[in-house]
Amino acid sequence: MDNSLLAYTQKYEEEGYGLQYPDGHVIRFYERILKYKLHKTSGNLLDFGCGNGVHSKYFKNITGGGGIEPYGIDIVPSLKNIWEKDLLLNSKNFHIITPNSSFKNLFNVKMDFIFANQSLYYLTKQAFKETIQEFYELCNNGAIIFATMMSDKGYSMYERGELMDNGLREVKKCPSGRLSGSSYIRFTKNIEELKEDFKPFKPLFWGDYELINLHNFEGSVEHFIYIGQK
To answer: Which 3 state secondary structure label does DSSP give 6?
Structure first.
């Protein structure tokens, strides 16, 4: 197995999975980095692993509806129905792809932002490398990339399989019972590996964040943050 499609199809279609509000670290990225530090709040944005479109709508709305225009990619087929019913999204800008596949011919515009929140670490090692190169080729000069990667500390209390040749580990048996099924994740060891993975983008800012974790009952869920520029 080299993808988490089955697990996420079940989450969306049977368990009511999907964000309702933008993540806090995403809001901080916009307010502190794009708006305050870089003064870059307009252009086309590719939301890689866009889910039900919550973050796409956030970027569009926070910039007045005419600042950032979102485009999206995801792997769960049933999301197409959600995009088509959402009046705040232009469903023609959003596409379903198969896991670990190319997307370079889907868009006839260049991107000024790449946004990949909690999505890239599900790719195999080779697919990840190819995806970063496709991001780079799809971007205008000066484009900003924001991405999160799972720290090697992440899912420490889940059952984690051995490292496979494709760079993924099977992750299952959530100790709280919150998630079911298996996911396949590529873990990042440290900041140095993070920066190396995102070449040829130039690193601007990097760091980490931890999702809510009460009394450590699910173990660490530390993520790295990478912000770079073409």
So the answer is: helix
Q: Could you tell me which residues come within 8 angstroms of residue 92 by beta carbon, excluding any fewer than 6 positions away?
A: none
DSSP label of 34:
I
**Token digits of residue 144:** 């900003």
The tokens 């307009």 sit on which residue?
42
> Measured between alpha carbons, how far is 90 from 70 in angstroms, rounded to an integer?
8
Tokens coding 99? 């896991």
Angstrom distances, CA of residue 83 to CA of 68, 89, 94: 18, 6, 8
- Among residues 10, 112, 136, which one has the least CA distance to residue 59? 112
One digit per residue, the tens of pLDDT, for the chain of length 230 reads: 565 455 555 554 444 555 577 889 999 999 999 999 999 999 999 999 999 999 999 999 999 988 999 999 998 898 999 999 999 999 999 999 998 889 999 999 999 999 999 999 999 999 999 999 999 999 999 999 999 999 998 877 778 889 999 999 988 876 555 556 778 899 999 999 999 999 999 999 999 998 766 666 667 788 999 999 99
Other Cβ atoms within 10 Å of 142 Cβ, number: 11
Taking only Cα atoms into account, the Rg of the chain, rounded to an integer number of angstroms, comes to: 17
**Largest CA-CA distance found in the chain, in angstroms, rounded:** 48
* Region of 93 on the Ramachandran plot (φ > 0 left; ψ -120 to 50 alpha; else beta): alpha
